[in-house]
Structures are given as structure tokens and as C-alpha cells.
Amino acid sequence: MSKGMFISLEGPDGAGKSSVLEALIPILETKGQAFITTREPGGVAVAEKIRDVILDPKHTEIDEKTELLLYIASRRQHLVERIVPALNRGELVLVDRFIDSSVAYQGFGRGLKVADIDWLNNFATDGLKPDLTLYFDIDVEEGLARIAKSKDRGADRLDRESVEWHKRVREGYLSILEKEPNRMKRIDASQPLEKVISDTVAVLAEHVESLR
């Protein structure tokens, strides 16, 4: 059985990657592509409980390292329970956030050592990286303004961080983009959603044979 393909979607808060992922579902279905979509933190029961702890706005006492370790624990359970089995079945796996989020948010945002985060990511994933990462880029102010206007989403614990903190997170993503241009592909998320979706499909078609 052939190994599947692993694709992650990343971006600052308010970039709209979750909306794009939702829009991709019917497109993939029409292509007859076997796939799953999932998210971090979350995706399986244990990881979803960890997500609730991490993102609850009331949990202001969470330490930076505790936050990172919670994400890593969630990632490990999600990986072994959902992602790896799907890849072993030869399916396309699309996940909303993965290892790069920890580097951007806890490394650049919180100021933790990126080398430590890389080690923990490698430990939790057994060295597994996405085959392709779609990075949805948007100015911080615009992304946060979108969140503020959204009726479907309340601000979580991370949304409420300072603009300066969110700018550091974006800088983290841009740093990864510069280091790994073959894996990470930038998509302009400031465009209308329809254009972002079409740009995403175009990038996917370059890497996923069934979408050509």
C-alpha cells in the first residue's frame, strides 16, 4: 500500500486557513481523492480536551513551557491515532496547523528556544514532517480585525495577546518560509476568499497528481 501525502495549513490568526480547508472538502470529493481533514490542537478525543485547556481565555496562568508541552502532547496523540493511520492507508491528510505553529507561536511569540522546540517536535512526531505546507500570509492588524468582526468565532486565549506578540508570530512563519521554501509555499491570504481558494488549489495541483 502506498504512503499517503501529508499537507499542513499554517498562518497567523485570522488568515482564514480553516475556511479554505472547509472549501477544499467538496473539491477533493469531486476528484475522487481519498483524504481526511483534521486540526491541531485536537483531531482526536484526548487532543480535543487538551485544546480546551490551552485555548480557554480563563487559563491566564498557563506558563510558556507548559503551553508548549500541552501542544506537543496533543500533537503526539493526534499523530499516532489519526494522521499516521491515514497516511498508511495511502490517503491525503490535510491538517490545520502542525509543527510550524509551535516554532512560530511558542518560539518567536513566547521567546522559547527554537532548538528546544525542534527537538520536542522531532521527538513527538518521530521526525515526520509535512510533504507540503501551505502558509496563508496576512498582516497582523488585518487578521485580528477579521477575528473581531467574526460572529462565528469568539476570541480565544491566544487571540487576546498583544499586536506585538502576533507580529512576532508572523515573523516566525516568515523565517520558516525563508529556510524551507521547497516545503512551505506562501499564499496571499489578504485577497478575497474565492481567490485564496483558487490559489490554494493551484498550488495543490502542482503537488497532488489527482488534482491536476
TrEMBL record:
Domain Thymidylate kinase-like: 9-197
Superkingdom classification of source: Bacteria
InterPro entries listed in its UniProt record: P-loop_NTPase, Thymidylate_kin-like_dom, Thymidylate_kin_CS, Thymidylate_kinase
An example Gene Ontology CC term for this record: cytosol
Entry GO MF terms: ATP binding; dTMP kinase activity
Catalytically driven reaction(s): dTMP + ATP = dTDP + ADP
GO BP of this protein: dTDP biosynthetic process; dTTP biosynthetic process; dUDP biosynthetic process
Keyword terms of this UniProt record: ATP-binding, Kinase, Nucleotide biosynthesis, Nucleotide-binding, Transferase
Enzyme Commission code(s) on record: 2.7.4.9
Major enzyme class: transferase
Pfam families, per the entry: Thymidylate_kin
CDD domains: TMPK
Binding positions for ATP per the UniProt entry: G11, P12, D13, G14, A15, G16, K17, S18
Family per similarity comment: Belongs to the thymidylate kinase family.
Role this protein plays: Phosphorylation of dTMP to form dTDP in both de novo and salvage pathways of dTTP synthesis.
Protein name: Thymidylate kinase
Organism: Streptococcus intermedius B196
Gene behind this protein: tmk
